[in-house]
Amino acid sequence: MKRFDIITEADARLLPPGSTIELAKGGHVTPLAADTLRDLRITVVRADGLDDDTGGPGGAGAGGGASLAPVADIKSIAVGSDHTGIALRKTLVAYLRGQGLAVREIGPGAASESADYPDIAADVSRPVARSEVDAGIVIDGAGLGSAIAANKVAGIRAAMCTTPTLARYAREHNGANVLTLGATLLTTDEAIAIVDVWRRTPMTEPRYMRRLTKIRRLEGTGGR
């Protein structure tokens, strides 16, 4: 990936359409270059993690991959479950609050109160997408349905994880901002280990971040 300290219009016109470039920390894109980058659908990944100001969906103006990376230092989180995950939800809520996180708890209070996992997934994912909380966790029987539902919310990248290794990959490589868990598949200790790795793993490498811009581009075009 080509790296620039400053991108001028002349530089931008020499770049292949649809390519990805990196802007160095403190780097600058000139206004005319921004227009050209947008027209050529070139993605700019900023090394300093700041948003781009170049405008345009999915390319340089989408804020670059850096702005899509999940919050590294999670301080607030939404945790929800359907009726099958109440016990695990309550355990995780208590654990995370004990770790100093602000937790928004979502879901039924008793197993007799049936809840549909798409509703819970949406209720957890929407505040994440709106940046009202830093991340989200959704629990159902297997975690699969909640992942599917959560990923229908624009701006959400949900991953169902059954091991700490998958949790690390979900964050580091895929920028997952929502974690889904299967209450019937995990012990409490296993779930806590997964959550700990997931919430403490940052996403920092530009080569991973630029792939998020391609995911968002698919989201914005309905996958076409």
Beta strand count: 8
Q: What is the straight-line distance between the termini? A: 25 Å
Number of separate helices: 8
Global Rg: 19 Å
Order of helices and strands, N to C?
EHEHEEHEHEHEHEHH
Provide a brief overview of the structure:
This protein is an alpha/beta fold and 224 residues long. It contains eight helices and eight strands, in the order βαβαββαβαβαβαβαα.
Topology record:
Layout: E1 2-7, H1 9-13, E2 20-29, H2 31-39, E3 43-46, E4 76-81, H3 86-98, E5 102-106, H4 117-129, E6 135-140, H5 144-150, E7 158-160, H6 164-172, E8 178-182, H7 188-200, H8 206-220
Parallel strand pairs: 1-2, 2-3, 4-5, 4-6, 6-8, 7-8
Helix pairs in contact: 4-5, 6-7
Keywords, separated by commas or semicolons:
3-stranded parallel β-sheet; 38% helix; 224 residues; 8 helices; 5-stranded parallel β-sheet; 8 strands; Ribose 5-phosphate Isomerase B, Chain: A; alpha/beta; 2 domains
Describe the structure.
The chain is built from eight helices and eight strands. The chain has helices at residues 9-13, 31-39, 86-98, 117-129, 144-150, 164-172, 188-200, 206-220, and strands at 2-7, 20-29, 43-46, 76-81, 102-106, 135-140, 158-160, 178-182. The chain has 224 residues and is an alpha/beta fold. The longest helix has 15 residues, at 206-220. The chain has two domains: 2-69 and 205-220, no CATH class; 76-200, 3-Layer(aba) Sandwich (Ribose 5-phosphate Isomerase B, Chain: A). The two termini are 25 Å apart. The strands form two sheets. Strands 5-4-6-8-7 form a five-stranded parallel β-sheet, sandwiched between helices. A three-stranded parallel β-sheet has the order 1-2-3. The radius of gyration is 19 Å and the shape is elongated. It is 38% helix and 20% strand.
